[in-house]
Each structure stands twice: as C-alpha cells, then as structure tokens.
Automatic annotation (TrEMBL):
<keyword id="KW-0560">Oxidoreductase</keyword>
<dbReference type="InterPro" id="IPR001155">
    <property type="entry name" value="OxRdtase_FMN_N"/>
</dbReference>
<protein>
    <submittedName>
        <fullName>NADH-dependent oxidoreductase</fullName>
    </submittedName>
</protein>
<dbReference type="InterPro" id="IPR051799">
    <property type="entry name" value="NADH_flavin_oxidoreductase"/>
</dbReference>
<keyword id="KW-0285">Flavoprotein</keyword>
<feature type="domain" description="NADH:flavin oxidoreductase/NADH oxidase N-terminal">
    <location>
        <begin position="12"/>
        <end position="335"/>
    </location>
</feature>
<dbReference type="Pfam" id="PF00724">
    <property type="entry name" value="Oxidored_FMN"/>
</dbReference>
<dbReference type="InterPro" id="IPR013785">
    <property type="entry name" value="Aldolase_TIM"/>
</dbReference>
Length: 399
C-alpha cells in the first residue's frame, strides 16, 4: 500500500474531495421521532459532529415503510427517508453536518427481518424467506422486491434534494441486503436465491438503481458507497465467509462505486480465522485504483487512526471515538491529536453532546448490545432507565 497520511486530501471517483482520511462512522443516534422524523435532539447531535471527520456518514435511514424501524423497542425510533415528508429533517441534518466544510453522506437501508417496529405495530415483517424469530417473518414477493429496489432509488433522489454529497448503501449488520446474500436467511428457489450468483442479485440490483438515479439527476460529484460485513459466522452457523463476500465486492467494483466500507467488530487490524492477511488487506486487493476502502474498528486516538491508514485502508471510520470526542478529526487536522479525549468520565459527559437515547444506551451495562465506551463504568450510575420500562420494551422482552 502506498504511503498514506491522515491529513491527505482525498478525491473520489466522481470528483468529491474531502480534506483527510477520516470518516464519521454511521451510528444510530437513538433520537428519531415515531415515523422516522428527525427530532431537535437529532439536529443537535449532528451539529456537534460537523468537525468529527472529513467524510461524515449519517445513521441508517430506512427507504421503505416495510424497512423499519429497526431499533430497541421503547427507545427513540430510527430515521426514515421513505417519503418526501422526511425531506425537511434530512435537509437540516445535511446542513448541520456540512456547516464547517466537511462532506455529508446519507446511509440508506432496509431492515428486513430486523424491522422490529413493524412487529410492535402489528404489521408484516418481511425478509427474503419465511423465518421465525421472536415473531413470524414473511417472505417478500417478486413485486415487493422490485418495489424495494425502486425505493432505494427514491431515497437516493431525496438525499440529493436534501443537499447530501452521497449515499452509502447499507449491506451489513444483518439487514436486508445481507439477508439476501446469506444462506442462513435466504432460502429462496427463484432467481433471488440459491446460488452465490443469485444471492448477489438483490444487492447488485440496488447498486444499479442507485447509480441510475444519480446519473438521471445529473448530481455532480455525488458519491456512492457500499457497506458490508465481510463474514457472517455464528459458531457453526455460517451465512457466508469472506471468500464469498470478496466475490460480491468484485462484482460491485465493476459498477464503479466510490468506496467499499467494511464493518469490522474485531478492530481495524482484524483477520479472518486462519488467514494471514487482515480483512483490510484482503479487500483492498479486490478493488480497482479508483474505489476507496473504508474500514471501521476501535479507533480512539490519532496513533491508531494513523496506523490504520498507513497499513490497512484508504480511509478510517471512527465511531465510538467520535462519541467520546466529537472533534476527533478537527483536532488531528490542527495538530492537536494529543488532546483527543479517549475515555468517558462523569465530568466529560456534557462535552460529548449525546442524545438522551444514546446517553441511556451507553450508561446501560450492556450498551444495548454494542461495544461499551472506554471508561463507561464510571457513568453507569447515571443511567436513568428512561426507556427501559416503556410498555413497548416490556412487550418485546416478553415475546
């Protein structure tokens, strides 16, 4: 890999330029109103993260009414972009993120079987195939599949109208695109399932529809990224391995996107079991010269971010590190990386500018299933339980 510096200016395939190799990782802000609308808490949260990185990726926005919300019942909802009525909030988010000159990308998504809000509201939960979780999940029909593909295009058009600089197609974290790719959740026998080629068909159809809409809109410098989990392995249950997801990436690369974004739970330097190379190195080798690689994973310091871009990736996405210090990228760009706050303390909490939902999530001892913030044990006693005893949370827990 050519020598990379954190403060390099990066230009993507479609012409968008960012001032460094740092991205704000997409993280649910736990702040949306019912129906997927941005709240005042949402806008405040993004206002305080406008200096977090050169490329600022929003939390996931569901593109179809059937696509969400995917959230913890009782907590604030998930952001939506399935209707023009969401445009006002989307514009405010874009303006908040871009106010200091950095670029903003909207992550677009369909929850599939993870759309718990559908179950709570007594609506069908859909996926590639019939499944049974805590609730029944119905297989999508052919016409519904085609409509969801079109919905990704419509969401892209709204992101353009809202003033975003790009979209990131969310194909990771067990949501619908990954569900089509995984043999654990795709049991179809038609053209949308079975062989690896067929299981790739839905993600690739979404990519092509998003590209078509961007071209049709004539959106200059508007970038397109794709996020994926490189493996789906749960003990002896294997949805796919990195060898299969590499083939998906090779197919996506042919579509000439701007970046591939790997969601890594094991850290930016993690490797597949039994492999000599890191996920970053393996997937970087599958890209062409114009497709950038973004990886995310356990970055809380300038030193770690520098190591990541020097040895593993083109751009490093920082998630929890920007929750702890919202000015993570700004400090590095101004030669003050040594002042980045790396751990939570009770005294530092006001400077984190968390939404009430995020504060409650990260003061739980289980962090709602997410990795904890460094130092989180010092603020567990501040947990108020605001959302934990909500009737929806109790209803879901009883299922």
């Amino acid at each position: 890999m050519a020598q990379h510096n954190l403060t390099d200016t990066i230009t993507f395939r479609r012409g968008l330029t960012i001032p460094n190799r740092i991205a704000l990782a997409p993280m649910q802000s736990q702040s949306a109103l019912e129906g997927g609308y941005a709240s005042n808490d949402t806008i405040r949260y993004y206002n305080h993260r406008s200096k977090a990185a050169g490329l600022l990726i929003t939390e996931f926005h569901y593109v179809s009414e059937s696509g969400g919300p995917a959230y913890m019942p009782g907590y604030p909802s998930q952001m939506g972009i399935y209707s023009d009525v969401h445009l006002e909030g989307a514009k405010k988010i874009a303006q908040a993120l871009k106010k200091d000159g950095n670029k903003a990308v909207m992550q677009i998504h369909h929850g599939g079987r993870m759309a718990i809000g559908r179950f709570i509201n007594h609506q069908d939960v859909v996926a590639p195939s019939d499944l049974q979780r805590k609730f029944p999940v119905r297989a999508l029909t052919e016409s519904e599949i085609k409509e969801i593909i079109a919905d990704f295009g419509r969401a892209t058009k709204r992101a353009i109208e809202a003033g975003f600089d790009g979209v990131e197609i969310h194909g990771a974290n067990h949501y619908l695109l990954q569900q089509f790719f995984s043999v654990l959740t795709n049991h179809r026998t038609d053209k949308w399932g079975g062989s690896l080629e067929n299981r790739m068909r839905f993600p690739l159809a979404v990519v092509r529809e998003v590209k078509r809409v961007v071209a049709e809109a004539g959106a200059q410098n508007f970038i397109i990224g794709y996020r994926l989990s490189p493996e789906e392995i749960h003990g002896t249950d294997i949805g796919y391995t990195y060898k299969e997801s590499l083939q998906l990436v090779e197919a996506i690369v042919k579509e000439e996107l701007d970046y591939i974004h790997l969601s890594l739970w094991g850290g930016y330097d993690s490797k597949p079991e039994g492999a000599d190379q890191s996920f970053g190195s393996l997937f970087k080798a599958a890209l062409d010269d114009e497709t950038k690689l973004i990886i995310v994973g356990n970055i809380f310091s300038e030193e770690a971010a520098r190591d990541a871009v020097e040895n593993y990736t083109d751009i490093i996405a920082v998630g929890r590190g920007t929750l702890v210090d919202p000015e993570f990228g700004h400090k590095i760009m101004n030669g003050k990386g040594d002042t980045i706050v790396r751990e939570v303390t009770p005294e530092h909490v006001p400077n984190m500018h968390l939404t009430p939902g995020l504060f409650e999530a990260f003061t739980r001892t289980d962090s709602l299933g997410l990795p904890p913030l460094p130092g989180a044990e010092t603020i567990y006693d501040q947990h108020r339980g605001t959302y934990d005893n909500h009737p929806l949370a109790i209803l879901y827990a009883e299922q």
